[in-house]
Amino acid sequence: MRDRIVNSLQGHAADYIEIRLEETRITRIVYRGDRLEEVGRTSSLGGNVRALVKGGWGFVSFNNINKLLDKVDLAIRQAGLTAKEDFKLSQTEPVIDIVANEKSEPMNTPLASKKQLLDEYNDIILTTPKIRTSSIGYYDSQRKITFANSEGSCIEQTKADINLRLTAIASQDGQVQQVGLSIGSPGDFSAIKGLQEQVKQMAQRAVELISAPQAKGGEYTVVLDPVLAGVFVHEAFGHLSEADHVYENKRLQEIMVMGRRFGDKSLNIVDGAAVPGLRGSYKYDDEGVPATKTYLIREGTLESRLHSRETAAKMGEKTTGNARAISYLYPPIVRMTNTYIEPGTLSFKEIISDIKEGIYAKDWYGGTTSLEMFTFSASEAYMIRNGKIAELLRPVVLSGNVFVTLDNIDAIGNDLQMNQGGGCGKGGQSPLPVANGSPHIRIRRCLIGGS
Amino acid sequence: MKEVLSQAKKMAEHAEIFQISSKVTPVHFEANLLKQIQSKENVSTALRLIKNGRVGFAQANGFIEPKTLAEMAAETCEFGMPAKFDFPKPKVYPKIETFDSQIDNVTIEDMVKLGEQLIASIRQHTPDIICEVSATKGIISVDIINSEGGEASYSKSFFNLSLEGVLIKDEDMLFVGDSHSSCHPLLDFTPIAEEVIKQLELAKRNVSIETKQMPVIFTPHGVASSLIAPLVSAFNGKLVLDGASPLKNKLGEQVFDKKFSLWDDATIPYQVASYPSDDEGVPSQRIPLVDNGVVSHFFYDLQTAALANTQSTGNGSRHGGLPTPSPSSLVIGKGNISFRDMVRDIKEGLVVELLIGAEQGNILNGDFSGNVLLGYKVEKGEITGRVKDTMVSGNVYQILKQIEAIGEETRWVEGFLSTPCLYCTGLSVTTKMR
Questions:
Q1: Which of A198, A255, A309, B331 could pair with A89 as two cysteines, CB 3.0-4.6 Å apart?
Q2: Is B242 in the A-facing interface, judged by CB distances under 8 Å?
Q3: What residues does each domain of chain A span?
Q4: Average pLDDT over residues B235-240
């Protein structure tokens, strides 16, 4: 197979060609209430060819891996139609390597054990008084990707991913409230074990929400827990640091100029697939570029951004190994990996002690961004009154403007935690495994939607 | 497919094979210039088994030995849910036009030209705008066979043209956009250009707004981005069955305004969400969900319908796994008030064109809350400019209970929703203090 790929790359009239073949196995288990709705397996085999001619790209994806040469020709023809001017990708050393995944447990764990664990969690939710129903989605995957390009790289990588989302749903008098919990890991099944206590609390909170009041809309001082602050840093800043939003946009380049101050000196934001052991970790990205750890913001000022080989070349900056594709159906685009705010020095108590009235928001439902404006939502929220956590609130949606909000962070905790649940969506490619993290943070004047 | 069926019959009492193949050609423009041309071919084969009364499932994308697929599915039967349904026997399907052979005659050059013309017309109005445009054409074929002799098969063509533009002034970003989809080729760029230019005109000036309750006009894009997610979940037969829908036990009751009607309709000719057969071989229908404010049906697949002692509504849809109830095209009935008259009626209010993040609230309860990515302020019957740093929150059951007015024109948005403008009252608008 490897020889066939390498041979197909030889002697073409293109500036660059790459071929990727992928074999994937997925197991999915879905519960709704006491019904086990789905136990299913998916097996995929496919690949793609991407070709670059004078700055224009052609991309061909397929299931039938025969006649690779025809696909290479088609990709080059398409690239030729988009060709504009001479252009060279950012230089990287060709790599020949085989990367095995040391944690291939999802495939080795029997279906019966997976089901047993999920049954146990589901029982905990459903036996909680006043719980109406539950929803559980479990997913694991193992992918083997063979990548080669016309510059001599040939890389075989095996990757695993596990994702679990549990939701408890309570209802009374036509009111429906839900609380969710998301956990994931890059293949280590034990990461989703031992959640019994968390699941129990989650179900109890869904019941409590039925009688909880809704926050009054307005500007508040908010404290985010590490999970929600991780979603915040991903949405509020991470996407803006993806160079594909910036590299063809002069105006945005003027705004996102290196050295620009975004926040206080204590603010440091990092992204890196080279940070080991997380869902966004890997050795090489989907263009065969080695992973790095990148300071997006150091001591409050913009230091670098996330690149593919194309965006790095166009902007004259260093590659960071952030080109990722969710599967062979898509070309790689600039994506985040493991994104987090580095810990500061304050304890949680110190962070909330001088807040007269504010909101403590925990855990996530979701988040999205337009680059400038972002929203993200907490599944658990409390009022803070006179430096103490007070009454429980219905879930809140928070919103802000990236150019203002980062500068409104005025306290950073000492308790960094990484969140491995969920996934990221961009350009129709979703969900991509990523990790987000942060210590507790405090933000002044954050906009909260409400009654 | 026949080979998979015969292998499957050796391992289980009942079996069904669903195969979908697609060929899609997207042409992408980035930063006003042609960037990438793609060609994507995909075949996937899904096998559903019923063995000892339990459902098993496996799917293969790309080639797989029929026996291997059957073994994968059989292995999951032991753990699968008890089957409450039978695979459909041979059926007569409605004749629904979803294929236009003209799609084959559209060349990549035609699509490139279409994108260039669209971008040129927007830049003629606003030279500094940066546009991303996609023109996509595709053909899909669906084939279903089962062990009861049921067979369904159809082809669909589709074409989509979409534009997203961003205009940056200092640190202010303005996002505009529109898209159109059809089973016919769409070779006229002007409807999108006109809509986007209208947005740019209305958003020329930024104005401030106060935090308070006020009336809101949701444009068709506004309806899609604010109100649809909670409604879709509430009418999903599965959520009704679980008691996770506030509409459980509300069948036949007046829950919405008398002026409000909503259908799920898979039978509209040449609409991209139409089909003669759903993904498990049930003939498609037009289902009234809300009839003049009265909750009249929920939508179901086979298994959920059987559990709820009712019939499938032909809404079994696959998203990489077993079929599950999903809407086809949603249609909101039109009213008799013009957009102009709605605006004239408002002393102080908001027009919502696009809300982001609205689906992140507790949609099960009908709550939504999002940031106004594109919206205009109304003062004394006139649109005065664009609002920013503003959130809109509400509950669909409260705001659709008494609708001020429904627009006289409808349009398709996102390829699956046909809706007029909805003029609603009592929404919470929250904004940043200056």
A1: A309
A2: yes
A3: 2-210, 218-448
A4: 96
B173 touches chain A (CB under 8 A): yes
Contacts of residue B204, defined as CB under 8 A and 6 or more positions apart, other chains included, come to B385, B386
Four-point Cα dihedral A184, A185, A186, A190, nearest 10:
-140
- The verdict on B398 touching A (C-beta cutoff 8 Å) is no
Least Cα distance to A356 among A388, A382, A381 occurs for: A388
Distance, in Å, from the CA atom of A198 to the CA atom of B305, rounded to the nearest integer, reads: 34
Helix (H, G, I), strand (E, B) or coil at B10: helix
Residue A451 has pLDDT above 80, yes or no: no
CB contact under 8 A, A447 and B389: yes
* CB neighbours of residue A108 within 10 Å: 10
CB A35 within 8 A of CB B84: no
Q: What pLDDT, on a 0 to 100 scale, did the predictor assign at position A105?
A: 67
β-strand partners of B49 = B15, B56
Separation between Cα atoms, residue B105 and residue B87, nearest integer Å: 38
Helix/strand/coil for B5? helix
**In this structure, what DSSP letter does residue A414 have?**
S
Which chain B residue's Cα is nearest to A63? B62
Q: Is A34 on the interface with B (CB under 8 A)?
A: no
Cβ-based contacts of B359 with chain A (< 8 Å): 366
Kindly give the pairing relationship between strand A218-224 and strand A429-432: unpaired
Q: What is the pLDDT of residue A10?
A: 84
Q: Which two tokens stand for residue A95?
A: 């790599």
CATH number of A2-210: 3.30.2290.10
pLDDT of residue B192: 98
CB of A288 within 8 Å of a chain B CB? The answer is no
Mean pLDDT of chain B: 96
pLDDT in tens, A398-441: 999 988 999 999 999 999 999 998 889 998 898 999 999 999 99
Domains of chain B, CATH where assigned: 2-199 (3.30.2290.10), 205-434 (no CATH)
Assess contact for B19 and B2: CB atoms under 8 A.
no
Give the β-pairing of A409-412 and A441-448: antiparallel
Do A46 and B40 count as a contact with CB atoms less than 8 A apart?
A: no
Three-state SS for A231?
Answer: helix
Instruction: Give residues 73 to 102 of B whose Cβ lies within 8 Å of A.
Output: 73, 75-76, 79-81
Give, rounded to a whole angstrom, the gap between the first and last alpha carbons of chain A. Answer: 61
Residue B394 has pLDDT above 70, yes or no: yes
Does pLDDT of B14 surpass 70? yes
CB B398 within 8 A of CB A214: no
Q: A90-105: per-residue pLDDT in tens?
A: 999 999 999 987 666 6
- Contact indicator for A316, A253 with CB cutoff of 8 Å: no
- Contact at CB, A217 and B79, closer than 8 angstroms: no
Question: Which residues, other chains included, contact B197 with Cβ-Cβ below 8 Å and sequence gap of 6+?
Answer: B121, B122, B125, B126
Pairing label, strands B316-317, A16-32: unpaired
Mutate one of A16, A41, A371, A380 to test the B interface: name it (highest B CB count within 10 A): A41
Option in A36, A62, A371 nearest B173 (CB): A371
pLDDT for the residue numbered A104: 62
Amino acid identity, residue B422? L
A103-112: per-residue pLDDT in tens? 666 778 899 9
Model confidence at B196, pLDDT cuts 50, 70, 90, reads very high
The residue with tokens 């259908």 is B263
